[in-house]
């Protein structure tokens, strides 16, 4: 099953060059990573993953995207074999600020009753060579996540002059209400917590690679402590 799923992910993502022959607004990526870590939590139980994504820039402001990531029967997400993320974003440039709004739905093939949706907003601006991003994402009360979930984050990134390297860092805080402790532990094991990380990424033409340090304030949960994550891929 793992081999079949990985082949399917690669096939779906590699279809994007063919689509790009007909629309310059379509792009895609294929990558491998040593872990699927989101908000300080491993979604793949610490296992390596394969990811494919496709994005469509419908207008200057509106875009749509989809991504599929292998999870290999993730315990965190009810034994799901993968997560498929469907998203839509709207962004406007207002002076030196770029304001955005986004909606996302997470689907978990191979598991029952695990899907959930969220929406959010962000503001980005430049300070010298650095790009600063402030974001808020909210998942309304849903049975699959045992309540609701609010994630606030701040991030900064900057290219290293004269090199193809970019350095970025972030800090985030997860909070929310709890109606079902078991399901709420998917996104907030132990309740409200902080996560942080720093990464260095290399981009040369269509190829990219990077290493990321990730950690969280969670004391008693699997696959949430300090780790280094490597990744490599190609864009189309």
UniProtKB/TrEMBL annotation:
Keyword annotations: Signal
Species name: Sphingobium agri
A Pfam family it matches: Gcw_chp
Official protein name in the record: Porin
Residues annotated as signal peptide: 1-20
